[in-house]
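Complex 245.
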Amino acid sequence: MIFVLTGAGISRESGLETFRDKDGLWSKVRIEDVATPAAFKKNPKLVHEFYNKRRRELTDGHIKPNKAHKALARLEAALDLTQPEDSVRQGPGLFLVTQNVDNLHELGGSKRVCHTHGSLTSAKCEACGASFEWLRDLGLDDVCPRCQAPGRLRPDVVWFHEVPYHLGLIEEELYSCDLFVSIGTSGVVYPAASYINVAKRRGVPTVEINLEPTVSSSYFDKGFYGPATEAVPAWVESILPLIGT
Ligand code: APR
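Predicted structure with adenosine-5-diphosphoribose bound:
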């Protein structure tokens, strides 16, 4: 099973900003002002506006999945074909975990996407804990569709100082994968940044695909550097023949 971790770099050529590149999101707005529970408590209106702007980008139809997203969807489909009916590993041939809160992997055709930092297209109720698809602006006037609590909805994204989603599942897949691939992430936010260490300790082959080398590059067995829309399809094409498709 191939474990693929993606970050903001895979969506950059679709027109979404990354976080830490020189013109990235965190060069324009402070994390402390928009991406922590304390920020939301202090100024929920500002935080809602920050995520509403990013959600509108996704829903206004201009942002499309790119060749990198589509290549991973092709890989998922090809690996699923190779899963024999009675395979011991009932799990998928590809486990895709993304730090991104955009929906471009899904729009690119991926069927199973593990959003460990949540999703811009989902909202969560702080009163009852329910989360649900949310595609329009979110604000203090909105009422929870499940418990009707007014003004208790928040973006269903994981902020700094919060625990990322699906850590148990991610750990299970990390400890059973046969290949670890990191795509378009600077590898500085934990726990995702530690996954390469686990893969390395387990002795599985590791591949980094990124615009340029990162702080973790020396840990990887192989690196493919260049724009994701070129490097990811090239890598997928290079391994398809190996998985007997
Ligand atoms: N193709 C491939 N890689 C690219 C491209 C591109 N066109 N453009 C940029 N990159 C690379 C950059 O070189 C960088 O290594 O993508 C990476 C983006 O790094 P970050 O901006 O730090 O984004 P990411 O690693 O996803 O951040 C992780 O931090 O702020 C939190 O929750 C947020 O999920 C995010 C997490």
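The pocket of adenosine-5-diphosphoribose is lined by residues 7-9, 12-13, 18-21, 24, 99, 117, 184-186, 189, 210-212, 214, 227-228 (CB under 6 Å).
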